[in-house]
Amino acid sequence: xxxxxxxxEFKVVASYLIYEIRKxxxxxxxxxxxxxxSHFRN
Length: 42
Fold this sequence. Notes:
Blueprint: H1 4-41
């Protein structure tokens, strides 16, 4: 069982990890969109 302080720490770490993962995922998606746009344009 989590203590209240441990639970808060877990939430902070989890939200930070989610933020980092979203930031990492955003880069390839933009890259793929640009690649597809340039590919279909030619």
